[in-house]
Each structure stands twice: as C-alpha cells, then as structure tokens.
Design goal:
It is a single chain. This protein is of the alpha+beta class. It has a single domain, classed as Aspartate Aminotransferase, domain 1 (Alpha-Beta Complex), CATH 3.90.1150.200. Helix content is about 50%, strand content about 20%. Helix 2 packs across helix 4. The protein is globular.
Length: about 140
C-alpha cells in the first residue's frame, strides 16, 4: 500500500470515529459492531466519510452506513447485489441500495459478511473487465 493511501485511511478512520462518537450510545454500539463486521469481511478495505456517512472502499466504494432519525441504514451500494441476495433480508425494510435496521433489531453478522463479500467480488470482477478492454 502506498504511504499516501495509508495516511488517507487512517485519517478516514478518525473521521468515522468522530461520526460514531456523535451518536446516541445504542446507535453507536450498533454501528460499531457493523463496522467491525465489515472490517472482518473486507480487511483490506479503507474507510472514510463520503456523502456525509462512513463508507468502506477498495479502491472504489464498497459499502456504507448511516444513522437517521427513525432507523439506521446499511448501504450495499449495488442494486445487483441487493437483487441477488434480496431473499436473505426480506424481513427487513429495504430500498434499492440499502437495508434499514435499528439498534434493537440489528442486521445479522452473517448477512453483512455475505453482502460485503459479494460487493468485494463485484468490484474485483468490474476491475478485471476494465483491464481486458482494448487500449488499456
């Protein structure tokens, strides 16, 4: 990893720490657990604040999460992955790109890991296709 990339990741982690530190304790705990789960599923991913929320990237956007007034959302950032794995979270309220949850009813760790790994694979496949294009 380049020195600049490591520094950016470390600064990003501090930004995410500040984001989480501003939340109510129950929401902070739920999102910190989600953060640890994403790190376990994609240890090479870096984190930063983008679009006003914590996101992981490797080097392109992977997943993100945010706290809202009525719920928290895990942003999968892929309609294809959401469609492919949708039956696994059909009990949850979701949108085209994210899954809503609460501190009292968090997302299952196994589901989060599966979604993150699917996104890592999707990004890797996208990168492979780009490298194969003529003129690259």
């Amino acid at each position: 990893m380049k020195n600049g990339s490591r520094a950016a990741g470390e600064d990003g982690s501090r930004q995410v720490d500040r984001y989480l530190g501003a939340l109510a304790p129950d929401r902070r705990a739920a999102l910190e657990k989600l953060r640890r789960t994403v790190r376990a599923a994609a240890p090479e991913a870096l984190e930063k604040i983008a679009y006003g929320m914590p996101v992981f990237y490797n080097p392109r956007m992977l997943v993100g999460f945010a706290s809202f007034k009525e719920h928290m959302t895990f942003f999968v950032m892929s309609t294809a992955v959401m469609k492919t794995l949708g039956r696994e979270f059909r009990e949850c309220t979701s949108t085209a790109g994210g899954i809503h949850f609460t501190a009292e009813n968090p997302l299952p760790v196994a589901l989060v890991k599966k979604l993150v790994k699917a996104r890592v694979q999707e990004n890797a496949e996208r990168d492979r296709r780009r490298r194969k294009r003529p003129g690259r």
